[in-house]
Design a protein that fits this description.
The chain is built from one helix and no strands. By secondary structure, it is mainly α. It has one domain. It starts with 5 loop residues before the first helix and ends with a helix.
Amino acid sequence: MGRNNEKNIKAHNDKLHKAQNKKKQAEVARKEKLKEIVKKFNEDKKNEE
């Protein structure tokens, strides 16, 4: 019985891809939040003038 059988490889890849997708989603969410903050900041600056 080898450690590198199809079942183990698939389980590892699924876990890896899930982690990568989670990281990618967090990055996208962070960028969206930053866009909103910048937009609000620009609106506030405009209103002050």
